[in-house]
């Protein structure tokens, strides 16, 4: 699941940060699970459409990439306060 990627090496999060991370985890997991389910169903279909499989795979890749990009922006304990967004 995508949520395991959202565990940055930080000991404490503010309440607002924790709410944001929880919402992001849930949304990311839902999107990825939906896309994976749709792709699996299409691949298993007798009339699988290669273009649809490719489009679903691309959306899945973009979704995972968006999460990774966001996670990379999260401040850690080592991030100087002045550099935090």
Commentary on this structure:
By secondary structure, this protein is mostly helical. The chain has one domain (14-74). The protein is 62% helix and 0% strand. The chain has two helices and no strands. It has helices at residues 15-44, 50-72. Helix 1 (15-44) packs antiparallel against helix 2 (50-72). The longest helix is centred in the middle third of the chain and has 30 residues, at 15-44. The protein is elongated and about 50 Å long.
Please work out how many helical segments DSSP would assign. Answer: 2
* Rg calc: 17 Å
Poorly predicted runs: none
Instruction: Give the DSSP E fraction (strand runs of 2 or more residues).
Output: under 5%
Shape: elongated
Secondary-structure element pattern, one letter each: HH
Biggest sheet: strands, sense, closure?
none
Estimate percent helicity: 55-70%
Mean pLDDT: 81
Topology:
Blueprint (H helix, E strand, L loop, with lengths): L14 H30 L5 H23 L13
Concise overview:
The chain has helices at residues 15-44, 50-72.
Offer a few descriptive terms:
single chain; 85 residues; mainly alpha; 2 helices; elongated
């Amino acid at each position: 699941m995508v949520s395991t990627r959202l565990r940055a090496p930080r000991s404490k999060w503010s309440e607002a940060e924790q709410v944001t991370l929880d919402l992001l985890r849930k949304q990311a997991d839902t999107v990825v699970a939906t896309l994976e389910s749709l792709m699996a169903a299409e691949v298993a279909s007798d009339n699988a459409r290669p273009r649809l499989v490719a489009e679903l795979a691309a959306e899945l890749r973009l979704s995972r990439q968006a999460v990774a990009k966001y996670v990379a922006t999260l401040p850690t304990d080592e991030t100087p306060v002045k550099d935090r967004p």
